[in-house]
Amino acid sequence: MDNPSRSERSRKAALTAALTIIARDGPGRLTLDAIARESGLSKGGLMHQFPNKEAVLKALLEQQFAHFDEFARKFRAEAGPATNQPELATQIAISRELIAQQ
Fold first, then answer.
1. Alpha-carbon distance 44 to 51, whole Å?
2. How many Å apart are CA 86 and CA 90, to the nearest integer?
3. I need a surface site. Which of 15, 41, 75, 91 has the fewest CB within 10 A?
4. Residue 94 burial by CB count (10 A; 0-12/13-18/19+): exposed, middle or buried?
5. How many Cβ atoms sit within 10 Å of the Cβ of residue 41?
6. pTM of the shown model
7. pLDDT tens digits, residue range 70-95?
8. What is the dihedral of CA 81, 83, 87, 88, to 10 degrees?
């Protein structure tokens, strides 16, 4: 496996582990040590991807923004011009998606 693929796999594993920790133990228990344990990465390997907890949280937020941007884009494409108020309909759909994710 090439380095970019391995790096991306490690990054995804770390973010998945961070979400698991937050859901299971709460955000106060999110530490780099906990993420390393949960993901199976070495702490050095984790810190290669994320130098601190703030970087992990920023990546989680970016991941969520990207998800909802893509969701909104797909919703608008599927709804098409038949929707009376496309922005309102999109915001309602995003709210429903957010509730369903929790």
1. 9
2. 6
3. 91
4. middle
5. 20
6. 0.79
7. 999 999 888 877 778 888 888 898 89
8. 180
